[in-house]
Amino acid sequence: MSALETRLRDELRGLATVTRERSEDGRVEGVHVEPRNPRSIDFSWFDHGDHHVSIGGWGNRWELDDDAESAVLAADLARSVVEGRVWQVCARGRSLLVVTLPDGTQWHDTTYTAGAGLRPILGWRRTGAKTSYEAYADVVD
């Protein structure tokens, strides 16, 4: 994880803050990347013995295997966030996040919260609040 942290710090210098995170029991390490651009979205990458990539504050995430193919996918997800290829639809208690990878394929994750997220809302993906996130490099001073 320290090699990833160093690489992210070097590549995102001036564009984002990279912090190391650790679980309370100290067994799980990860990094959290907070963009300087307020119109970009943050992400975290944790090593639980496999790769967990979470994007934004709604709990959208992917839990990937611990193999070379999954490591490449996790890196592609992170690169896509940094390059601004992410959009999201939110409605009461739910979030759809779509990440377009460098090869053009899209990865989706839908997250529901307890309570309001369990109640059906017909057409929420069509009528919810839509956000297209900017690249980290699109910083406006």
Describe the 3D structure.
This protein has 141 residues and is α+β, with helices and mostly antiparallel strands. It has one domain. It contains three helices and nine strands. It has helices at 2-11, 68-82, 124-127; strands at 16-22, 29-35, 43-47, 51-55, 60-64, 86-91, 94-100, 106-112, 129-133. The strands form two sheets. Strands 1-2-3-4-5 form a five-stranded antiparallel beta sheet, with helices on one face. A four-stranded antiparallel beta sheet has the order 8-7-6-9. A hairpin with a 4-residue loop joins strand 4 and strand 5. It is globular and about 45 Å long. The mean pLDDT is 90.
In short, what is this structure?
Helix content is 21%, strand content 38%. The protein has 141 residues and is α+β, with helices and mostly antiparallel strands.
